[in-house]
């Protein structure tokens, strides 16, 4: 827009200079003063269009300059006042049709009068029409911009409504399927704990299953509420856990885990703490599924510059399955019960060998780390284990 205005200013200056050169020899004192006043008032045409028009009208009477009044008329017509535009158009027509001196009007022939009227009409109506056209185009551009903005806003709202509908559908599916099965697990494990009185290990296992089921139901309830409410703040706070929950997590993992947690000097953000917890949780799940019975080492410590937090979960190779051997003398186990290798606890298969996996756990952890500006890498150890290492900014 500024480039267009500067170009228009240059074109106007060249046109005025050219018009002055064509009549420079006919200048006397009075026409020179009138033309100077008209030219000096042109820079004010956008701020004071009517004043500029009145200052430039006398040059039409002298017959030396026609361009300044037409430019001023264009600026007046570009305004929003139709009454002012009509008055200005009449003034320009009157100034253009009247000869100077006015007494010459009596001596003009009919043909000269008609020619003067036609020229006055062109010089008054032409700039007025151009000004009105420019105003209409500006209004159309503004209206088009409003329509475009309204359409984009409607599209955004429709997208948000579609997302809300999909979130509600996911919430219904999660509540109707996962909550149903987990609820049954919680109820049955609670009943098993209450019914079992002879075996303490069974009671402990049933209580662990019940506790984890209740915790899963609570987190599921929070996430269903987030999906239905579409609240970003609630989404960030739902299911959030911190570094202080790592020891409880590893203690309930049914694995041989050693934990080394060194808290940084600066308290990490809640999102970083939650990411650390989820990385350790998913890594332990993978060990239970793919390397049951392996030893696991969890280490959380700040970086050397105290600007990052490193998380490392390393597991050893799973132990080799025990070979069949002759049972030593002693009482037979209870009917229907076997003894897990290396323990006195009942069991048949190593824990976790039949757990399903979708293959998205590590992908989700890597995305979680990248969203926080960190990184996550995985590698197989030379001795046969597996390592998950993440670096998160504090």
UniProtKB/TrEMBL annotation:
GO-annotated cellular components: membrane
UniProt cross-references to Pfam families, sorted A to Z: HATPase_c, HisKA_3
Residue spans of biased composition, Low complexity class: 336-354
Coiled coil ranges: 137-167
Residue intervals of the Histidine kinase/HSP90-like ATPase domain: 276-394
Region spans: Disordered: 302-362
Gene3D superfamilies per record: 1.20.5.1930, Histidine kinase-like ATPase, C-terminal domain
Domain named Signal transduction histidine kinase subgroup 3 dimerisation and phosphoacceptor: residues: 166-230
Keywords: ATP-binding, Coiled coil, Kinase, Membrane, Nucleotide-binding, Phosphoprotein, Transferase, Transmembrane, Transmembrane helix, Two-component regulatory system
Transmembrane segments: 50-73, 85-102
EC number: 2.7.13.3
GO molecular function: ATP binding; phosphorelay sensor kinase activity; protein dimerization activity
Substrates-to-products reaction catalysed: ATP + protein L-histidine = ADP + protein N-phospho-L-histidine
Pro residues compositional bias, start-end: 316-334
Entries under PANTHER family matching the protein: NITRATE/NITRITE SENSOR PROTEIN NARX-RELATED, NITRATE_NITRITE SENSOR PROTEIN NARQ
Protein name per the record: histidine kinase
Organism listed in the record: Streptomyces roseolilacinus
